[in-house]
Design brief:
The chain is mostly beta strands. Among the domains are: 120 residues, Immunoglobulin-like (Sandwich), CATH 2.60.40; 131 residues, Sandwich (Immunoglobulin-like), CATH 2.60.40. It has four helices and 33 strands. Strands 1, 26, 28, 29, 30 and 32 form a six-stranded antiparallel beta sheet that branches. Strands 4-3-6-7-9 form a five-stranded antiparallel beta sheet. Strands 13-12-16-19-24 form a five-stranded antiparallel beta sheet, with no helix packed on it. The longest helix has 6 residues. Keywords: Signal.
Length: 467
């Protein structure tokens, strides 16, 4: 059975929960440099195109992504008006020191209208050899031959990002959710849109389930027949936008803890898709409303996006003085981000957990943090390599699954630590005798952040993430 651990990771968080404490325990300095810069300047092609150089997203990453925008182990930056860019590879790659190896660089494809014609430019996936001299210098300047934009080239979002996007219309409680579709990805016509809700545990289903998925849009107009707790929708077929009204920062009779939206190009009979395999493979996006309480809450981002920056994931939600505590695996301590007029710049990794701290007020705070993104899996299951001791992690899908189901292969003595925000304590489970001694603690609910502990000397089998 799980045991509440009142002395919470004495080595880790000695001062975290002292009365009145606002910040986590101080950490020792990282033994690695604070930055490794990859610098360059975008160049126009021989025709002096594209017409502008600003706003291109540049990526530097560890493993080939086969021409897709990387979603794992990457650094990203945007070009300025002159085309200049600098990526901090150390910070965004998780403070992992670079090695003598081949990394990859590319620019995401960007569209422009030139002479009334839609055209695009970018830079395809390009191998970048990092030598010991590069490492010693602390930076890598990319030659112009590597940073020249090419028409029709560029990294593109992976298949599960194609066709639909989702965003918060605003960050204030009661704001709307907007789902936008691209008709070109649905055979040149508007898709049928289906919606499902969940109770906040992680109930997404990519397959069609009757009385779970309901059609709300038939490609021309809204349709009825869905449950009252779905709330209300509006649609604009000129801007290709389905608006789900009053969904941000609130859970109630017309706003659920989790909502998913699927665009389907096939035919429908009696409210059910006729091509079930096509429905299962259709693009889906979602929004999750995660309950936060006073003080500490352990969460992770439970969806997919091409922008894992704090500004995109959380935006302007939460109050001045609230904090995000992320884990520095190298020094085994926390780094703090505090909201002032906004959040500091920071980019998270796909499987990274975090602690959200709500400053206590005169009355108890119960707030919902709304996160939006893609609900599908990776094109290729990514691999996570746990380090010795503590790893603050999470499962990046809106599904409730146990540690064995998500692909974790533990070694005897490994541990999972789950935070209880209500009691402000940890529960602990250990892998003993070939199984977890409390599978409830080894279960990833929606947006759970957990510590995975690997005793020094234990074998570390890479975690291949399973959807």
């Amino acid at each position: 059975m799980a045991k509440s651990v009142k002395i919470l990771f004495a080595v880790l968080v000695a001062a975290v929960l002292l009365p009145g404490a606002v910040s986590f325990a101080a950490q020792s300095p990282t033994p690695y440099p604070a930055a490794y810069w990859v610098n360059g300047a975008l160049q126009k092609d021989a025709s002096s195109l594209p017409p502008a150089l600003d706003g291109f997203k540049l990526y530097f990453y560890k493993a080939p992504s086969n021409g897709f925008v990387p979603t794992f182990d990457y650094a990203v930056a945007s070009s300025d008006a002159s085309g200049n860019f600098s990526l901090n590879a150390l910070e965004d790659l998780g403070l992992t020191p670079l090695t003598q190896a081949t990394y990859y660089f590319g620019a995401q494809k960007k569209d422009f209208t030139v002479g009334g014609v839609l055209r695009s430019w970018g830079i395809n996936e390009t191998p970048i050899a990092i030598s010991q001299a590069d490492i010693d210098s602390g930076y890598k300047n990319l030659a112009a031959a590597l940073t020249t934009l090419v028409e029709g080239a560029g990294l593109v979002p992976s298949g599960e990002f194609s066709g639909m996007t989702i965003s918060r219309e605003g960050d204030a409680p009661g704001s709307n959710i907007n789902v936008v579709w691209d008709p070109a990805k649905f055979g040149g016509t508007n898709p049928k849109i289906f919606v499902m809700t969940g109770n906040g545990w992680g109930q997404y289903s990519k397959e069609f389930v009757p009385n779970v998925w309901y059609q709300v849009f038939d490609g021309n107009a809204l349709v009825g027949g869905y449950p009252a707790h779905f709330g209300s929708f509006t649609v604009n077929t000129t801007t290709y936008t389905l608006t789900h009204n009053a969904q941000v920062g609130t859970v109630g009779s017309t706003s659920s803890p989790e909502v998913y939206y699927k665009g389907y190009a096939g035919t429908v009979t009696g409210g059910s898709p006729d091509d079930l395999p096509a429905f299962a493979g259709a693009p889906a996006v979602g929004k999750t409303n995660i309950l936060l309480r006073d003080e500490y809450n352990a969460i992770c981002y439970p969806l997919r996006t091409i922008d894992y920056s704090l500004g995109n994931i959380i935006g302007d939600q939460m109050q001045t003085g609230d904090q995000i505590h992320y884990w520095d695996y190298t020094s085994q301590g926390y780094q703090l981000l505090t909201k002032t007029t906004g959040w500091p710049a920071h980019t998270f990794q796909t499987i990274e957990g975090m602690f959200v701290y709500l400053v206590k007020g005169p009355t108890a705070r119960y707030e919902y943090l709304t996160m939006v993104g893609n609900a599908g899996g990776f094109v290729t299951d990514p691999t996570v390599n746990f380090g010795d001791k503590y790893n603050l992690t999470g499962y990046p899908y809106p599904l409730r699954k146990t540690a064995p189901e998500v692909g974790i292969i533990p070694t005897e003595g490994d541990q999972l630590h789950q935070w209880d925000s209500a009691g402000q304590t940890f529960a602990l489970t250990t892998f003993v005798g070939g199984s977890w001694n409390d599978l409830s603690v080894a279960t990833f609910n929606l947006a759970n952040g957990k510590f995975y502990y690997v005793p020094v000397g234990n074998a570390k089998t890479p975690w291949v993430l399973k959807f």
